[in-house]
Design brief:
four-stranded parallel sheet, alpha/beta
Length: 349
């Protein structure tokens, strides 16, 4: 209990990916990424995993640094802190003894830096991942990293906490992501004041290796559920927009991006989808939807806005646009607040 207040202190830990904010951070970021056993899986001895991560990071660092430099390096850390600050201001209205902390997986602030400042004996702890879809490579990796930090500091991982993940289906978040989709559709349908032959809406999620999916990782299934929900909402809206005249011109597709390495990843690949659709629908418009991301970073600002845009125009599309993720929109923070309340936040204030 907080001294003299009679109210319990609540610590909310917001977990996210992190990203390099300058050139000197690119190699350490990649090294930590490829050392993660949830990124490169398998029973690999620690010394060999470290050697392999160093080799991959050294090889990829120059290209990655070039791409990050193109976008002014990653804005994800700044955006995550803004999201956390917005969330904290909302939660303080429910429990004035609340603090929201940011923990990144691959760049500062790390779990090992936060854990010594927490006292699980006197505080209620909530852990909220900023990945809407449950995936071992992101969600589980972040939670395990937090557990290991507790074990390193306290000698065990047995601390009480409420953990919140897999929240893509929350009505508030579905409505928010649909609002961005609708905004993009309206802009495409009224492009230059004249209709294009069609609008190809390509939802693109970060991919995972096919073997991970085959072994039961729920990520792809959750992405498919989110895609189907948004497609249904969009089709219902198109029935009423402009008398339903544009519904037959809008086509929805799901693909997966950011493949690395020789292993097959879940398909269809975004690059192949763009090329195939450009050939099938010459002079159409293409609208990219980053379905698995809650903020802009390298996959949207470089991969989508540079690589995929150029590919789409070369493949025959007349114009290209992209839906933005929720980012710093206060409605995302309100959604996260509601999700935490649904998980018991404020019940014992």
């Amino acid at each position: 209990m907080d001294q003299g207040t009679g109210s319990s202190r609540t610590e909310v830990i917001v977990c996210h990916f992190g990203g390099p904010t300058q050139s000197s951070e690119v190699y350490p970021f990649l090294l930590k990424l490829f050392e993660d056993p949830f990124i490169i899986r398998g029973r690999i001895p620690a010394f060999f995993r470290r050697w392999l991560a160093q080799r991959i990071a050294r090889k990829r660092a120059p290209k990655s640094d070039h791409e990050y430099a193109k976008i002014g390096y990653s804005p994800i850390n700044r955006c995550t802190q803004i999201q956390a600050d917005q969330l904290e201001s909302l939660l303080l209205k429910i429990n004035p003894h609340t603090k929201v902390h940011v923990v990144n997986r691959y760049t500062k602030p790390f779990a090992s830096e936060l854990v010594p400042r927490l006292n699980p004996k006197t505080s209620k702890i909530y852990v909220l991942t900023l990945y809407p879809h449950l995936c071992h490579s992101t969600t589980v990796s972040s939670l395990r990293d937090l557990d290991l930090a507790f074990e390193a500091h306290h000698g065990h991982r047995d601390f009480p906490s409420t953990r919140v993940f897999s929240w893509w289906h929350h009505p508030g978040y579905l409505n928010l992501t649909f609002d961005y989709l609708k905004e993009g559709l309206i802009a495409q349908l009224s492009k230059n004041g004249s209709p294009t032959p069609s609008v190809e809406v390509v939802f693109s999620a970060h991919g995972i290796p096919q073997p991970y999916h085959q072994r039961g990782d729920p990520y792809v299934t959750e992405i498919q559920g989110h895609f189907q929900a948004l497609q249904s909402m969009a089709e219902n809206w198109l029935n009423t927009y402009e008398g339903g005249r544009d519904k037959s011109r809008v086509h929805f597709h799901l693909s997966f991006q950011s493949k690395v390495g020789p292993v097959e990843w879940v398909k269809p690949y975004t690059e192949e989808t763009i090329k195939a659709l450009g050939a099938q629908h010459p002079k159409a418009g293409i609208l990219m939807v980053p379905i698995s991301f809650t903020s802009d970073h390298i996959e949207t600002l470089y991969e989508m806005d540079h690589t995929y845009k150029n590919l789409a125009l070369e493949s025959g599309f007349s114009h290209y646009s992209r839906v933005r993720p929720a980012g710093e929109d206060p409605r995302l923070a309100a959604c996260l607040r509601d999700i935490l309340v649904n998980h018991g936040f404020g019940l014992n204030k």
